[in-house]
């Protein structure tokens, strides 16, 4: 599949512009520096839907990653396989004006605006590729996939980072959501330090704001965690299977 850019309608470009403009205004002082720099590196503009071919050229120069077009949500096996090959699966369809504030299935705005800018950050990219390789290795073990999906969820989708003693956003699920961008930095939000085993113990939440957010000290912390992820996973699998038995 490929992005058929010429088929985007004036309304599509307008929807992108509305979503982009209001979200940038919201996260300008909330998003991590690497993400905001990534917006510039990817060449995103408020006036038009991003052209994947142009973005891929920029990503190739930065980290070697690419956008890989998919029709929508795909199964875990192909999803993590693509990530392990430095290909980020993304859809090309965009929500309508009637869906600006609520959407059940992630669209291009989530996939592209939320995820792609941080693919210009090398340490984060190495972490993303590493957890994808581990998940692919255990793809036929549903319990292992569940735990790795939680790790992906609480970092790649809903992660927070400390910068200059302030908490900032790097998770794509937050960055593409107006409401969660505001909630996650409010006094109501609950913060926990990044810890793989602790994350494995928290099922992810899809129908409301997160009950807790895990905060990293730097992208280097994610990178340094790579060597221990698989061993923690195996220990956790042994422990929980023993409890179930």
Protein topology:
Layout: H1 10-27, H2 33-42, H3 52-62, E1 66-69, H4 76-84, E2 87-90, H5 108-115, H6 122-137, H7 142-157, E3 160-163, E4 166-169, H8 172-175, H9 178-183, E5 191-193, H10 196-200, E6 213-216, H11 219-244
Parallel strand pairs: 1-2, 3-6, 5-6
Antiparallel strand pairs: 3-4
Description:
- With 245 residues, the protein is α/β, with parallel strands linked by helices.
- It has one domain: Aromatic amino acid hydroxylase (Phenylalanine Hydroxylase, Orthogonal Bundle), CATH 1.10.800.10.
- It is 53% helix and 9% strand.
- The chain has 11 helices and 6 strands.
- The chain has helices at 10-27, 33-42, 52-62, 76-84, 108-115, 122-137, 142-157, 172-175, 178-183, 196-200, 219-244; strands at residues 66-69, 87-90, 160-163, 166-169, 191-193, 213-216.
- The strands form 2 sheets. It has a 4-stranded mixed beta sheet with strand order 4-3-6-5. A two-stranded parallel ribbon has the order 1-2.
- Strand 3 (160-163) and strand 4 form a beta hairpin.
- The chain is globular and about 55 Å long.
- It starts with 9 loop residues before the first helix and ends with a helix.
- The model has no long low-confidence stretch (mean pLDDT 94).
């Amino acid at each position: 599949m490929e992005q058929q850019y010429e088929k985007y309608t004036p309304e599509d470009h307008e929807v992108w512009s509305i979503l982009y403009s209001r979200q940038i205004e919201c996260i300008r002082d909330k998003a991590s520096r690497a993400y905001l720099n990534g917006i510039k590196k990817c060449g995103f503009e408020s006036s038009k839907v991003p052209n994947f071919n142009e973005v891929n050229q920029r990503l190739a120069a930065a980290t070697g990653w690419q956008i890989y077009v998919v029709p929508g949500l795909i199964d875990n096996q192909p999803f993590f396989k693509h990530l392990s090959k430095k290909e980020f699966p993304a859809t090309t369809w965009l929500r309508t004006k009637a869906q600006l504030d609520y959407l059940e299935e992630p669209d291009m705005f989530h996939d592209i605006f939320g995820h792609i800018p941080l693919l210009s950050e090398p340490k984060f990219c190495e972490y993303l590729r590493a957890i994808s390789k581990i998940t692919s290795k255990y793809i036929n073990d549903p319990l292992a996939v569940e735990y790795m999906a939680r790790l992906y969820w609480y970092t790649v989708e809903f992660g927070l980072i400390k910068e200059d003693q302030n908490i900032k956003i790097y998770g794509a699920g937050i960055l593409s959501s107006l409401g969660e961008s505001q909630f996650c930095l409010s006094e109501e939000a609950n913060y926990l330090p990044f810890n793989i085993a602790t994350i494995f113990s928290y099922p992810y939440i899809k129908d409301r704001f997160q009950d807790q957010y895990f905060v990293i000290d730097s992208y280097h912390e994610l990178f340094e965690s790579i060597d221990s992820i698989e061993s923690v996973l195996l220990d956790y699998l042994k422990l929980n299977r023993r409890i179930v038995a």
